[in-house]
Amino acid sequence: xxxxxxxxxxxxxxxxxxxxxxxxxxxxxxxxxxxxxxxxxxxxxxxxxxxxxxxxxxxxxxxxxxxxxxxxxxxxxxxxxxxxxxxxxxxxxxxxxxxxxxxx
Length: 104
Description:
Number of helices: 1
Number of strands: 9
GO molecular function, one term: hydrolase activity
Number of domains: 1
Strand order of the largest sheet: 1-2-5-8
Order of helices and strands: EEEEEEEEEH
Organism: Bosea rubneri
Shape: elongated
Domain SAF: 14-85
Protein name: UxaA family hydrolase
Keywords: Hydrolase, Lyase
Strand content: 25-35%
């Protein structure tokens, strides 16, 4: 079974898809393992859960961890700041560290 053509699977290890287009809430999608319903509007290029993701589980995109689920995420849910925490260091912290190193 294949997934919905409106979604991109970047790596077979990923637990999220990327939306190729804006998708409306309530829309049915195929995840490749079964049907799911979008829980809210999903903007272009945003993530959609490929399967259920448990709280504390890593969010995988490009086959790499990009964050962690802060709550249970159902298949078909929009994965964004409301249900995940980023693993990336904010760039302003990197700039602060660079400036601190220059003054020492």
